[in-house]
């Protein structure tokens, strides 16, 4: 049985042809264009025309998702007009095969539990550190859901009440302290003229760079300690663009965690990288 795993992003649509054990037969990339749904349907149509034996379609998308209806409840301005789209209904009407739609961070977490850094663990939390902050929670091997499709919006948990203004309109959200954008803000405030990548590499011989990384990892440790108190996971997986530089700051993070956690927690960097969303989306169909 072959299924499509679709990872819908703000700039590209990544479609993989996969089997039940996560083997990727072929990957196709398409630009994300407006209108979003038409762009998605066209991309899937081209892949299905090549692979006539596709039995189902799993889709990972940014935003809040009503999984039962396969409808996007809310999505950011990165995907104009995407909010409210009844993705499942439209695609099933077009292709006449089962479709499941899920939040992209949730499917990435599922992929890491099935085949990646959290393989062998039934209870895991994935924290994605990119431009913003998000994640997914796996309990007993399954994605944890809420009635409003908002489980895993960790970036908008308050870390510092009254702190920096967030895009959501509130102040002190975690996203303003542990995201890639927050690192850039810290660098501007410290008048550090270098890239985030150069900052990481300079921390050992540059006192200001070291202080920025120390503050960043302390705030990340605070965030993780709160998540542990709420979810009591076996393992935490760090994903997203910021995690790609973890070799430079994971030691600092673990140092802070020792003083903040209720009990030891295994922290690993995601292994599946940019394929996690696609692999996890495909797995939705095999677990249905």
Automatic annotation (TrEMBL):
Domain of life (superkingdom):
Bacteria
A GO molecular function held by the record: kinase activity
The alphabetized UniProt keywords are:
Kinase, Transferase
Question: In the UniProt record, does the keyword rRNA processing occur?
Answer: no
Signal peptide span per the entry? none
Matching InterPro entries, A to Z? ATPase_NBD, ROK, ROK_cs
Give the matching PANTHER family: BIFUNCTIONAL UDP-N-ACETYLGLUCOSAMINE 2-EPIMERASE_N-ACETYLMANNOSAMINE KINASE (PTHR18964:SF149), ROK (REPRESSOR, ORF, KINASE) FAMILY (PTHR18964)
Per the record, the similarity remark reads: Belongs to the ROK (NagC/XylR) family.
This one is known as Sugar kinase
Q: Which organism is it from?
A: Virgibacillus indicus
